[in-house]
Amino acid sequence: MYRILPIILLLLSFISHAQTELVLDICDAMPSDWYKKDLTKLVVKNGQGYCVSPTKILDKRIAKLSNLQELVYWNDIYQMDSNSNVTLPEEICKLKKLEKLSTNVISDQVFKLKELKQLSLSFGNNTDILHELGLGELTKLEKLSLSFGNHPSDLEVKGLANLPGIQEIELRNPTQAIIDAALQNSNLTAITISQTEGMSFDFSKCVNLKSINLDFNKLSFVPASIYNLKNLEILSLTYNVISNVDPAIAQLSRLTNFSMYHNTLVSLPEELANCT
Questions:
Q1: H-helix or E-strand containing 8?
Q2: How far, in Å, CA of 230 to CA of 217, rounded?
Q3: Mean pLDDT, rounded, for 139-145
Q4: Band of pLDDT at residue 13, cut at 50, 70 and 90
Q5: In Å, how far are 12, 34, 49 from 1, measured between CA atoms?
Q6: Within a 10 A sphere around the Cβ of 71, how many other Cβ atoms?
C-alpha cells in the first residue's frame, strides 16, 4: 500500500496539471468550451502543415480565464498576412495574473499588460507599434525576447533602455539603436544578440552581466568592453570571423565557459588559463 501511494499521488498531480493547461498545435481544433476551463497555461498555434485545421481565434471570452498565467499565441506568418481576424482581443488586458506571453500577433494590447514578467515577440513588417507604444508600461519585465524580420535601419524600441527589473534580453536581427538601448540596462545579468553585421557593442554599463551570447554576428574581434565585466561567467562567440583574442581576457577571473568554435582563430592567448 505504501509503495502504491506515491504513484497515486503522482498520477493525481499529473491529472491536475493537465487540467490547467491546454496545448493546441497546428493540427488541433479549438474546443468549443476552451473558455470554461480553469487554465493557467494556454498554447495556441496556427499554421500550414500536413493537416487542414480551421484558424483558431482568441476572442473576448478569453477574459473568463481569470487564472491564466502563461499564453502562447503563434501564427504562421503567411497565414497572418491573409487572415485579418488573427489578433489578440482587447479583453486580454483583463487577465491580471498573466505573467508570460509569447506571440507573433502584435497588437496594442500587448503593451498594456502591466503584470508581464516574461515577453517574447516576433515581428514581421509590423514594427510601427514600437515607436508609438513601446515597453514603457511593462515595468515588471524580467525577461524579454525580440525577434525582427524586415525593418527600417533606424528602428527603435521605445522604453527599452529603462526597464527597471529586466534581467535577461534576447535580440534577433536588431538595429544598432535597439542594441544600444538594451545595453543601457545596468541590471542585466544575461544577454543574447544574434544575426547582425557591422554592429558595435558597448557593454560598459552592464556591470552585472554574467552571460553574453554573441553567436552568429560576423564579428571580427571581441568587443573590448567585454574584458571589463568582472562578473562574467559565460561568453559565447561562436559562428563569427574572429581571428585573435586579446590577452585582456585574463581580467575575466570568473569566466567558466568560453565558446569560440566556428571562427578563424589562429591561436588563443596564454592568459586565458588565468580564468577560472
A1: helix 4-19
A2: 23
A3: 98
A4: very low
A5: 16, 38, 47
A6: 23
